[in-house]
Amino acid sequence: MDQVTSSLAARSSQKTSAAAPPQQSAGSVAKRLSNELMTLMMSASPGISAFPKNDGNLFEWVGTIEGPSETIYADLTFRISISFPSNYPYVAPTIKFDTPCYHPNVDIASGAICLDILQDKWSAVYSVQTILLSLQSLLGEPNNNSPLNPEAASLWSKPQEFKAKLMHYYKPITADSS
Amino acid sequence: MATSALRTQVSTKFNESIHKLLAGTNTGGRAWTYTLDYLRPYDLKDRAALLRPKAGFDQAKLREALVTLHHSRQLGPLGEAFLEDVRKAFPLIEREINHYMATYEQTQDPDVFRQLLSRLRDWYNAWKPPNACAPSTSPPHQPIPNAPEPSLGLVFVLDYTQAFQTRLFASLPPSFAAGLKHLANLCLSPESHPPRVGRNGEPIDMGKTWTDVDVLGLLDRYESVISSVAFESIEKRVAETCPGKWDQPMLASLRLWMSQTVVQWMLEVFVRPYHPKGDVQPILSNIGTRFDYHVNKALCDVRISEIWDIIIDYPDTLAALEDLRECLTRVDERGALVKALRKQNATRLLHPGADTKVILGQYVSTIKCLRIIDPPGVLLYKVADPIRQYLRERPDTIRCIVASLVGDDESGDSLIEDNEPIQPIQQPEAEDYSDQNWDPEPIDAGPEFKTNKPSDVISTLVSIYDSKDLFVKELQVLLAQRLLAIKNNDMERIDKERRNIEILKIRFGEAALQVCEVMLRDMDDSKRTDGRVQDQKKSVVHPTIISHHFWPSLESSDLIMPGQFQGLQDSYAKEFSKFKPDKKLKWLPHLGLVTIGLELEDRTLNVDVPPLEAAFIELFSQRDVWTLDDLIPLCRRRGQERGCESADDVGEYGRTERADGEFVCVVGEGGGGRGDEGHSSLSTHALPAPTAAPNLPPVQTVQQQQAAQMHVHWKFVEGMLTNLGSLPLDRIHTMLKFAPGYDMTVDQLGSFMEAARREGLVVNQGGQWKLNR
């Protein structure tokens, strides 16, 4: 019940900005999100995870992505924040890196991500799990054609220097950095 | 002026002194000596003194002397002088007492004791100032108006008696009490002692002895000692007759016995013919009440010490319970009863060695028994609490209760009596403030106690748990097992289950058992559906088709039936999908039962086997020798053990020999399962036949479901802690609301996390939980 009321609150706050499919009930969004949470929890995908930030609010999540092994990001862990709009899944969630991530497609200052499925290629069949998996693979395979961080894009071919830059910005996650 | 008053006073004093002087000098002196001499205590052993008769004193002279003394107001001092004489003479008596007591202590002969009493009485009488010398006839003229009545009478005798008794009590040795008790015992139970005949054969008059005791004032002083004889006798009687005698009321017969023996004895000891009737009555009723109380108490103690066994033997012990109830109204032993029963329960019942069924049985008996003893249920509440708590911790309690609800065939005695009317389960109700017949709670009820109307046993059992949902769930599991165990669509058994469910509906309500209803309907439906499919295309497969949604989760399996079985299944499924296009069959072949005919070289066998074994048997018709490694992929079984087991089981029918992981079908060629020869009924679900060895329960028990639930919860905790870092327990608790079906309390979650910590999965730092990496 509190899920419904809280999501109602979330909806009313975002109502002005969210013009698209307005008639869908907040309850069904919450239901979808809670199903996704269940799927994500029960699936054993290594290195990706996410969970709602607060009880009672299913629309703000925190995620964790471990860098894929055999890439330059191996053994690094990144925290991201996921914010679902009230008309999810018709509109993609807003995702940004909380841990500074030196990456061609990530803005080092804001953490904003340039990933096609999060923008024009978004589809309602995607889920938190697919997003997290895409982000994980994006770490190892950046799209250097549309960089948000041109410097990183240019350094990508020089792993030594890139790693140095990466480690310069990187801050490891501490236990209570939630 | 005060001088006149003063003068009178002085003159009075003066006159008095003159009087005294005169008396002292002549007549007074003689009267004093004479009287004192007359009164002087003498030694009974002294023949001379004994011979000196008191009659030798001249009564007239004595009276004159007394009058003289009275006039000179010397009676008081005379009394004191006499008592002083008594004191001085008392060692005579003491010597005698010691003599008798020594003899008594050596011989333990009550007769000696009796003689002592009689002798003491003699002493007392001998020294007693005779009433005759009381100057009751003394002239009434009195020189001084406020002087006391001149008398050597009652007061004098009372003083003497008191002094004598004081002396006597002081000089009696401690063994005297024992002797008196011995004597009293002798009177109460003469049958256990020598007959009441004196040493010389003359009958002993015990009445006289008791009169002696009374006159000497010993009856009052030693009353408790004497009564204790009666108490002991009551206790002895109860201990002799009552223990173990639970099938008949003992209290009435005890009371009868008491009125015949103890009361008789009491009359003999305490009632003297010379007592006025009004005095006797209160004594008797007082002592009688105490004896009756003691009977109750003794019986109560015995029964309380036996209460646990009494409860076990219920209902054969009804009489004992009713005795106990009556006793408890007189004796306040309720606390002791509760304590005893709780202790017995703790040591004899609530331990891992006791079967849950036994505990439940005893609990039900306890309910019934304590309701007899104490209808309001306070005792029951106090006793039942630990049992209920213990049962709540037992994993199979619900199962046992439910099994008894549906009247399991195996359990001979059901918890419910057949003649008990079926009532809906009663939920605890809020107190009804408008109840006109409201009674206050009993005085020893605890604060937790709730007056509940005597509800039926099943309601009480169900109320062990907070909700009846658990029962309904377990009921479904049980029903599923029982339905799947039915072979060949035995309609009679299905009807029996249906009848059970109807009865349970009355208890639990229609809505709660909706799912069970669906399960029963599935059984009917699958029979009908099977009929339809068989009409289209004959098949040896007869599946039971159940609705995935309404049945408890069944153990799934990756068994793929090899060979012809798979073909049979597939063709059946095809027919079925024609008949019900919107439904899809998901086979659970491992739950079925196959009837196969085995043609061996020398004989033919018809056996019912679980499908896995049938599959192996069939494989042996293709090849004579199989290795385990070859067998496993064919059936896609996980784990070799099951394969081995099954292959060994096949050995029961044909004979297989194991050698280095190879199985050889030794007996006969063509021994393979030509399953199509026999009537093969492969139901999708049916419990394995009892002979089947790997007999896992096909339905997930509530525990297994709980374990699965725990796994889900752990995944959520893991995800939470991965992303949110460290969290306090209550935060985890609220966050877990995201998990479906989360219903743990914070405490339960705490122990859950604690268990995870012991596994090394999480660590707890200052109340914050985090993953252990």
Structure description:
The complex is a heterodimer of chains A (178) and B (773). Chain A has 178 residues and is of the alpha+beta class. Chain A has five helices and four strands. Chain A has a four-stranded antiparallel β-sheet. In chain A, helix 1 crosses helix 2. The longest helix of chain A has 17 residues, at 26-42. The two termini of chain A are 26 Å apart. Chain B has 773 residues and is mainly α. Among the domains of chain B are: 16-171; 469-552; 553-700, Ribosomal Protein S5, domain 2, CATH 3.30.230; 702-771, Winged helix-like DNA-binding domain superfamily/Winged helix DNA-binding domain (Arc Repressor Mutant, subunit A), CATH 1.10.10.10. Helix content of chain B is 59%, strand content 4%. Residues 132-151, 637-645, 651-662 and 664-697 of chain B have low confidence and may be disordered. Chain A binds chain B through residues 2, 34, 37-38, 40-42, 49-53, 55-56, 58, 61-64, 79, 173-178, and chain B through 712, 715-716, 718-720, 722-727, 731, 734-735, 737-740, 768, 770. Chain B: This is Anaphase-promoting complex subunit 2. Chain B: InterPro entries: ANAPC2, ANAPC2_C, Cullin_homology, Cullin_homology_sf, TPR_ANAPC2, WH-like_DNA-bd_sf, WH_DNA-bd_sf. Chain B: It comes from Coprinellus micaceus.
